[in-house]
Amino acid sequence: MTYKNIDVYTLIKPEILKLRNIGIETANLDCRLLLSETLDRYEAIYNHQNIYISENEIKKFQNLIQQRVSGKPVSRIINKRSFWKKEFDLNDATLDPRSDSETLVESVIEYYPNKLEFLKIIDLGSGTGCLGLSLLDEYSCSEASFFDTSQKSLEMVKKNAQNFDFLERSKFINLDWNVRDWDKKLMKFENNMKYDIAISNPPYIPTNDIKTLRKEVKKYDPFIALNGGKDGLDSYRSIFSKLTNIVKSDGKIFIEIGKGQENNITKIAIKHGLFPKEYKKDLSGVTRVIIFVIK
Ligand SMILES: C[S@@+](CC[C@H](N)C(=O)[O-])C[C@H]1O[C@@H](n2cnc3c(N)ncnc32)[C@H](O)[C@@H]1O
């Protein structure tokens, strides 16, 4: 096989223009990420670096660019997304982790500054496991249970846990919080040991709003990870109704919410014996996480 020695920018410039012409603002970065994927490289590729690339690899790169042109997000083409301090593998059953959700990880760290503390954590609706696994990364003595109704997403959490060497501190629980007595089933699985911390980023988009989301979201994120029912709050009702049965009385609950949902979610929480301790904003200034304690 013959290899070409070429400057990265010379190779990607026509592809950058293709992506820019259809309004993709991150065209240069996207091209370099897709080139890294083509060449199986983990390290960053820079514009003015020389690389060796074969004809077949150039074809593969152009095919990935074509997928991007058709509207597929880079994370879905390469099935990877960086979150907090790690790179998470994705599949079509997992939400593509959002950087706004890092607000939740930050909030836990603020409340639990001792990184050597043993914390028993439950991640309700775990997706890729980005929240719970990031906490296992921060708290090296802690354990997390990953709870999701999607078996296929749990397989992805398991793969990520394995990649990060966290398998021994992880449990994977295939349950549905719409099923009556899900709390009892969960506690049976945990030998009645309650959690210090519950975290959740549940689906919170009102069903009718899903069709108005950007194509990259509505087409590639799983419906079940987005759909919060008629008013977007169904998952909060199901989860909050059981939290006092699964979280220790001195435990804390960290919940991600959608824009403008804080008042309604607080009302549901109070009805179920939870008290809002603090509201945290994300980098755009939107209230993104509520921290609850048990009354
Ligand atoms: C918004 S995604 C969050 C995923 C991940 N925690 C994150 O922050 O990227 C919500 C997750 O809840 C799960 N889920 C939806 N309905 C559920 C239910 N009834 N019971 C358990 N998990 C559910 C979905 O499969 C999805 O993984």
Keywords:
295 residues, alpha/beta, Helicase, Ruva Protein, domain 3, Rossmann fold, 2 domains, 7-stranded mixed β-sheet, 11 strands, 22% strand, elongated, binds S-adenosylmethionine
Radius of gyration, taken over Cα atoms and rounded to an integer in Å: 21 Å
Mean pLDDT: 97
- Briefly note the structural class of the backbone: alpha/beta
Summarize the helix and strand pattern as letters: EHHEHHEEHEHEHEHEHHHHEHEE
Overall description:
This protein has helices spanning 8-21, 27-38, 55-69, 74-78, 102-111, 130-138, 151-163, 182-189, 215-220, 223-226, 234-240, 243-246, 262-271, and strands at 3-7, 50-54, 80-83, 86-89, 120-124, 143-148, 170-174, 195-200, 247-256, 274-281, 287-294. The strands form three sheets. Strands 7-6-5-8-9-11-10 form a seven-stranded mixed β-sheet, with helices on both faces. It is 40% helix and 22% strand. It contains 13 helices and eleven strands. It folds into two domains: 3-76, Helicase, Ruva Protein, domain 3 (Orthogonal Bundle), CATH 1.10.8; 80-294, Rossmann fold, CATH 3.40.50.150. By secondary structure, the protein is of the alpha/beta class. Helix 1 packs across helix 2 (27-38), helix 2 packs across helix 3 (55-69) and helix 5 runs parallel beside helix 6 (130-138). The termini are far apart. The protein is elongated. Bound molecules: S-adenosylmethionine (SAM). S-adenosylmethionine (SAM) is lined by residues 95, 97, 101, 125-128, 130-131, 148-150, 153, 176-178, 201-203, 224-225. S-adenosylmethionine binds next to helix 6 and helix 10.
